[in-house]
Specification:
Blueprint (H helix, E strand, L loop, with lengths): L1 E7 L6 H15 L2 H4 L2 E7 L15 E4 L8 H14 L4 H8 L4 E5 L10 E5 L4 H4 L6 H17 L2 E4 L2 H10 L7 E3 L15 H8 L6 E3 L9 H14 L6 E3 L11 H11 L6 E3 L5 H10 L2 E4 L8 H8 L4 E4 L2 H5 L5 E4 L4 H12 L13 H13 L4
Parallel strand pairs: 1-2, 1-4, 2-3, 4-5, 5-6, 6-7, 8-9, 8-11, 9-10, 11-12, 12-13
């Protein structure tokens, strides 16, 4: 049986990335002819902290902090060993100890002569387009690592054709070493969606609302939504409400959330733009389902989770006009230029005035697309 490992650091704040990994783990574990030949291993630094996630009971969980908190001296030696010998020294001992055939969705290249083949996932190349969001050191290290992946990772995994074009700007990757596989989420059935009355009571929810389920990172561009709401309030009698949820921390811009909330307060939009906090996954999916439309105003994406989830429920989606959003081809979509709050405000007014029709069925293409995504990934595994 093939032993396929994934790594999740318990202090990792990128919930979207964790959800991508857990979604794939569950898809493989629940597919009859795959689970018979692939054993999923989940490596973490804290079994207790990741217990909050819904993990398939068939998954073998290994708690070992050495994968995450390696001594800087050992890290340097492993990098040199990787380049000179085609495998690491210290990490290799762990890979052999746990008999890992593959380690996936990682930023670790194990080397061509390693016991374990590494599948490196690069979610996006945002640093190429918005260098102001990253330090000079970060950008240099990022490029060096990509060059290391090129020569010492088994496969480089990307989520979009747009990302493949971006990677090509840094270096040429052999076709056989590159995999493009856009992730698809299975979503809770309509029977599992929370009742609207429950959500109303829990969040003091309004009947009609738009929803932004994005983390408060600077590139997620929440500010444009606030500016659109402010314009509507000053120039229209329309009462439009936007709810948002997600982690408020941004390691690059620590004051981003605070600045946005100050902008809401300054323009007296507290009744129009409402932050719900970091809420349970089923509540997120329920809010997507009941919303008038889902908004993703992001300046940059690798592949948008919220777009895929909204597509599954046949929702209207308001999107920043960036290439990857176009690539995702959502039906019922409304595009605006990422800095054009006037056009966004017109879309909000138009959709707020339309009748809301909740889908009574999950998107008919969802299961087919999920199977395609799962099997395309497993083709990487010999």
């Amino acid at each position: 049986m093939i032993r396929l490992a994934f790594l999740i650091h318990s202090n990792k704040t990128w919930i979207g990335g964790i959800n991508v990994i857990l979604n794939l783990i569950n898809l493989i574990s629940n597919t009859e002819n795959l689970k018979k030949r692939i054993k999923i291993i989940l490596i973490t630094d804290s079994r207790k902290k990741i217990s909050k996630f819904k993990i398939n009971e068939k998954v073998e969980i290994i708690e070992n902090s050495e994968f995450f908190d390696q001594n800087i001296f050992f890290k340097i030696l492993d990098k040199l060993s990787l380049i000179l010998l085609g495998k690491t020294i210290f990490l290799e001992k762990l890979l052999i100890k746990y008999k890992l055939n593959y380690i996936s969705h990682t930023n670790i290249a194990t080397g061509n002569k390693s016991f374990t083949k590494s599948i490196v996932w690069i979610p996006d190349f945002q640093f190429l387009y918005f260098p102001q969001f990253f330090s000079f050191t970060y950008r240099i290290i990022k490029k060096i690592n990509i060059l290391i992946y090129k020569n010492h990772a088994y496969k480089i995994l990307l989520s979009s054709k747009t990302s493949a074009k971006d990677l090509n700007k840094i270096c040429k990757i052999k076709k056989q070493n590159l995999v493009i596989n856009s992730f698809i989420f299975d979503v809770p059935s309509l029977k599992k969606i929370k009742k609207k009355e429950y959500l109303k009571k829990k969040y003091n929810l309004n009947d009609k609302f738009f929803y932004v389920p994005n983390q408060y990172w600077i590139h997620k561009n929440h500010k444009i939504v606030i500016k659109a709401l402010n314009h509507i309030k000053k120039n229209s009698k329309k009462q439009i409400i936007v709810y948002s949820s997600g982690d408020r921390k941004d390691y690059r811009y620590k004051d981003n959330f605070k600045n946005l909330m100050n902008l809401v307060k300054k323009n007296k939009l507290n009744d129009n733009y409402i932050y719900l906090g970091l809420i349970p996954f089923i509540d997120v999916m329920s809010l997507i389902y009941y919303s008038t439309a889902v908004i993703n105003p992001s300046l940059f994406e690798g592949w948008s989770s919220s777009v895929e989830q909204a597509k599954a429920y046949n929702k209207k989606i308001i999107l920043s006009d960036i290439s990857v959003h176009r690539e995702q081809k959502p039906k019922n979509s409304f595009f605006f230029k990422p800095k054009d709050f006037l056009y966004l405000s017109n879309i909000l007014i138009k959709l707020n005035s339309s009748n809301q029709i909740l889908s009574k069925k999950i998107n008919l293409d969802l299961k087919k697309n999920i199977n395609k995504y799962t099997y395309n990934y497993c083709k990487i595994i010999n």
